Amino acid sequence: MSRAEPLHLRARWIVPVGGPAIEDGWLRIEQGRIVAIGRRNLPGNPPSGRSIDLGDSIVLPGLVNAHTHLEFSDLERPLDAEGGLPGWIARVVALRRARPSGLEEAARLAGSLRAGLAESLSFGVTTIGEIATAVPRGVYPSIGPRVRVYREVLGLSFTGGSLPGAIARDLNRLGDSAGISPHAPMTVSLALGKALLREAARRDLPVTMHLAESLAELAYVTGGGGPFRDLFSTLGAWPADRPPPVLPPSDWISRLARVRRGSVVHGTFLGEPPDATALDRLARHRDRLGVVVCPRTTRLLSGRLPPVRQFLAAGVRVAIGTDSRASNPDLSVLGEARELVGSGVVSPAEALRMMTSDAAWNVAHEVRAGSIAVGRPADLVVLAPSGPFADPLEAILRPDTRVAATLRAGRVLHGHLASG
Ligand SMILES: [Zn+2]
Asked: For position 139, what pLDDT does the model report?
């Protein structure tokens, strides 16, 4: 199919997210963009260009996975969760240390990213918030999901001065798609965090940070002890006798809010002692900061679901992320949404915003992604429910609803557009 030729897609439902769902809807795509949306009859007699009737399908904006680490997409199953977050991090470090080096590792990483991008498309995802600890040249192909790549940095021994050159090189390489991620409160010294946020402000880049993911994190940043202190000593990551200065989540929130857009990842224990003001502070900065929850990972590592209702009550934009395949069986945001809706935490309409418009906002791509509207890139997912349905929002989340096709800028990158 030539992208130059205008294309009309008709479907039983078009769910734009920015407005009401359209029954018997159509949309017209030209040069990779949506140029018209309507109901029932196509304009023109006969309409110009090609026309495909997708039958009983539901067309949604391409889904947004607001938080993942594609470097782990080659794992067949999640790592063992014994010992909660500190135990799991120890296994991630062991995995990284056992990897090959040089060209062999570069090939493995490239293969893992390719696998993760293809898997994302197979789940209808067209925009990704990716955390990367290194950014080799050309590893994120131009044809594929749109990727916001947050360059992740961690370190407790950085005491000031300029950031390592590799960080500037990676940010330059990423250009418009760059972001910055200080890893987490227990792994980023105050001096390093300050330098990273200064760099983000200078380059006007969005930021993201794992915050309040575990009680062990809160124990460490408020008292300097607990399982993380032991873990860092074992790993040889403890730089001196004296604990390096680190900050609790509430202080990080104030600092992240100085950048134009940021997201807090997990936030499972925001609002709980000993740092109970963190959630209030997040609410105060909700024009700049959102939160990304990864329900299945939080259930695995913390034995509970994220406090989504508290975030929504505080008026904070909540996005869904899958986290990586080191803590999750797959990269399906629909799978995450099913977990929340199935547990009665959110409604299907809330879940839909969390994997489209509000997720796009969290990764600072809201002008391009997260809703179907005239003038936007035709990033779309075509869902095919397996049986009869009345309510499209309910049908979207059925476990047997299939992703029939995923389009990025009008190009079919997964599945195919078939007459229904
Ligand atoms: Zn993560």
From this structure: 85
